[in-house]
Design brief:
The protein has one domain: Phosphoenolpyruvate-binding domains (TIM Barrel, Alpha-Beta Barrel). The protein has an eight-stranded parallel beta barrel with strand order 1-2-3-4-5-6-7-8, surrounded by six helices. Helix 2 runs parallel beside helix 3. The radius of gyration is 20 Å and the shape is globular. The protein contains eleven helices and eight strands. The termini are far apart. The chain is of the alpha/beta class. The longest helix has 16 residues.
Length: 264
């Protein structure tokens, strides 16, 4: 299995992932079979506990698909636990300042670079059998601040300049909600461009989330994105189910009886 970082080293390929909200390992296996490049296990907007996340990380690794975890907040303990469980990185919401980014690095990195507790008898260390891998995964872990408010945008360049931060993620829905701007507003596009410029100046990949149905046009700043989170497992299930029921053979007459298929 390639590490998440390796996905972003291919210059002509935009890595495509999705959020996982459903606490079942089969979902991760299906997403891998569908061809997603990575998954983001979502603790912020789904009722997933550490034990469930541990199982989903294991399923992703078994299916050969890199797992990230979106933690619910900037929480040192949760960040350390999911990295010990073998996550390839963490997506951390509501990073607003350089100090937030510095705390993220300290929480995620082992000494001497951070203050994460050292304990290689976990999955990331092969349950104690592979201490070098434990150290290697620590250095490889992607630490991804999610920028989703005007203060975060204002400080994007400072956040990107923190040693150990080498990805940025645009939380567009929260940014629109927190600023009150419509996504079509030129002022909103300027906010996106500010974050995109910070990522470009730091020579780091930029990511964001989009819906299951691609937009006809995206803001110009988002053309620089190197990784996409496309909808989520529950949304994809809903979208696929509605699409299936909309097929001609499933359309019903007003009396409730199905229309016979018109194709052989």
């Amino acid at each position: 299995m390639r590490h998440f970082r390796e996905l972003l080293q291919e210059p002509v390929h935009t890595a495509r992932g999705t959020f996982v909200k459903i606490a079942h390992s089969d979902v991760v296996e299906l997403l891998a079979l569908a061809g997603f490049d990575f998954v983001i296990i979502d603790m912020e907007h789904a009722p997933l506990g550490l034990a469930e996340v541990h199982q989903l990380i294991g399923a992703a690794r078994g299916a050969g698909i890199p797992p990230l975890v979106r933690v619910p907040e900037l929480d040192d303990v949760v960040i350390a636990r999911v990295l010990d469980s073998g996550a390839h990185g963490v997506l951390v919401p509501h990073i607003q300042t350089r100090e937030d980014a510095e705390r993220l690095v300290r929480a995620a990195r082992l000494p001497p670079d951070g203050n994460r507790g050292y304990g290689p008898t976990v999955r990331a260390g092969g349950w104690g059998s592979d201490v070098p891998r434990y150290r290697r995964l620590d250095r490889q872990a992607a630490l991804i601040p999610q920028i989703e408010c005007s203060l975060g945008v204002q400080n994007a360049a400072q956040i990107a300049a923190v040693p150990g931060i080498d990805h940025l993620f645009l939380g567009m829905a929260d940014l629109a909600a927190s600023t009150g701007l419509d996504p079509s507003d030129p002022a909103f596009a300027q906010l996106l461009a500010t974050v995109a410029d910070a990522a470009a100046s730091g020579n780091m990949p930029l990511g964001t989330a989009i819906g299951a149905v691609p937009e006809t046009t995206l803001p110009e700043a988002l053309t620089a994105c190197r990784f996409w989170a496309i909808s989520n497992d529950a949304g994809l299930l809903l979208h696929g189910s509605r699409s299936a029921l909309a097929e001609e053979e499933f359309v019903q007459h007003e009396d409730g009886h199905p229309v016979p298929p018109t194709h052989p």
